[in-house]
Structure formats: C-alpha cells, structure tokens
Amino acid sequence: MIKTIKVIYSTILLFILIVGLGGCAGTLSGFSDDGGSSVLLPAATQLQAIKNENEEQYLDALTYWKHADELVAGKITDISAKLALVANEHVQRGKDLFEQQREDKALRAFLEALKFDPSNKVALDYLLKRYKATRFFPYTVQENDTFDSIAETLYGSSVYGFLVAHFSSVKNEEDLVAGSMINCALLDSFYSPALHDYEKEILVARKLYKAEEYEKVLPIAEQIRDKYPDDSEASFIVNKSLLNLAKNLQDDGHFNAAIATLSRVDRRFKNVTKQVEAIRREQNKKYAEYQLLSDDALIEKGNMLYVSGHYLDAVEVYSRIDHQSLERDKAIAAVKEKLDIEAENHFKEGIKYFVEEKLTTAINEWKRTLVYNPHHVNAMRSIEKSRQLLEKLKEIR
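The structure assignment produced for this chain is given below.
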C-alpha cells in the first residue's frame, strides 16, 4: 500500500503545480482541520520557486517544496486517520453480522473496511482466518505490475490490491515477474468454513434433540454455544437437554446424578432451585426405605450402582450400612477412589476446553468436578477465573 500512498502524494503535488500555473493571480485552496477552506500555498510563491529552480537557486526552491511537503504530509495523515475511523465502523458491522451467521454480508463489510484502510488488523484477521476462496483464475503479470494495478485489471478497482496481496500465489510485490503466471481468487467465491461447519453442526444437534438423544447432543450443542455465545437455538438445546436428562435420571432413581446435571443449567434459562429441592425430598424418602434393608441387601444394591458407574448413589447406599461393618468401610473407600478419579477426569477436561477457549463448557466440566469432589480447590478457582474472563469478553463485544 506504500506505492498507493506515493501515487496519492505525487498526484497532490501535481495538482498543486497545475492549479498554481493555471491561475497566477489566485491561490491554492484546501481543507483546514475543522473542515473549512484554507489557503495552503500562494500560487505566486510556487512560480517563484520554479523560477528559483530554473535559475539554479536550489536552496530557495527547496525551502518552498519542503513547506509544501509538510502541508501535504499533514493532510495525508489527517485524511488517513478519518479513513481509519470509517474502516472501523465497517469492521464493527462485519463482526456483528458474522456473529449472526450472516457470512456474505459480513464479508462485504470487511472488504469495505479494507478498501478504506488496507492495514486494518481486525478486518484482515477475519478475512484471512475465517474466509476461504473456492475458485481462482490465472493472470499473466505485465511489465511494472503492482498488486494495485492487477486489482484494477481483475476487480475493476485498485483498492482491492490487498486481495491480490493476500490470496494470490505471490506474496511479495517484488516477485511479480513480467510474463509469469499467478493465481488470483474470484471475488464471489469467498465463504466462511466456520459458518458452514455451524450449519452442519446445528442440523445434527436438531436431529439428535428431536430423537431425545440428550447425552449425544450435549457436547455438540455446547461446542456451538461456545463458538457463538449469542446463538439462542444452541443455548435452548443445551438447557432443555440438561433438564430432560435430569428428569430421566430422577425417574431412574439416580438422584445425585440428576442434581449434578441440573447444576449445569443456565440460571438465566431456568431457575432449578425448586426442582433440586423436590429431588432432594424424593431422595430422602427413597433413602429412608434403605434403612429397612439388611446390610447384605444394601451391599448388593450399592454394588449394582457401583458397577453401573453411579458412584454418587452408591456411596449414599453404602453409608447406610452398619458402621460396625468392615464391608462398609471397604466399599466406601473403593467408591470414593472412583469419585476422585471422576473428579480429576472432569477437571482435566475443563482445562482442555479452557485452552480451546470454550469457556462455558470448561465451567460446566469444573462444576461436574465439584459434584464428585466438593472440596476441589482448583476447580473452584478455575470456575471463578473463567466467569470473570467471560464477563470481560462480553464487555469487549
């Protein structure tokens, strides 16, 4: 883009010269900082500078041109800053559209931003990392070609020089050799792989939810929600799946697992406090029945739960065995070992999701950690830090 600025600069200087020569008695007008009209340099001074140069009075001529250069450079800086502001407006619009999964309109906004400011980092980041071109066509490099001149030929405007620079088979302008062939992207072939993936994922999530495959749909819907926090459909599928899964677990008598599942429901979606209290009451009623069972029956019941992986329910049953029983201590120790392993597995899963910037899913994994080990200090700290980070990200958006 440096060459573009040089061309603009040269054009302005030429304009100064033409206006100065065309109206000796007049003055050259421009724009002041407040948007009004102001005199840059008198035409008579220009003529005197030209006369000095012709008469080889170079120091006098240079004084004029230095002054002109300062004025032009200042004007370029001022206008460039205004163009950067306009570009940022297009970028913000593009980001909003991208979050709404309106990829085509978002792309146009990012391209528009780069027309005003080819160095805009945010627009370039979206264009380079989140869009791909599916079709390319060959172009034969001409003598003295630049990215801008190629863009003029291919796209009808030199402002698309950044497209040639970033998406052609040549990355450096110095490598544009006359007669060589380069590949350039077709402007209407750009698409966002991420949003295409979203369309596939949300379709799978819909089918699984409709089929009541709640265990299978949760990781898919949570992944979508992490990528697109404002996606209401993904959020609905996640929370409704958790509620339905909790109800199924409650009906099967797995009360602790049901409560653990409800802990992952977004409170903004539904306050589950009353539902948890109802499960606790049913749980206590059920456990009261266990008191009527013999130790052998309790061990058998606990072992069944243990083998099926319902460790939280198993430890509740084992705890009702006579305290004098050696079998009770052995069984509780075995199940607590499993609980610690489950807690660590979920904690590590949370770290993995955190590294992948899937903060909501990470928090849910650490919540599950606390279900298996309520005293897991690292899980508590990680949840708090991730929640603070989520709040900061919301402020940025």
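Interim note for the steering committee: Residues 1-37 have pLDDT under 50 and may be disordered. The beta strands are 27-31, 37-42, 132-133, 136-140, 181-185, 190-191.
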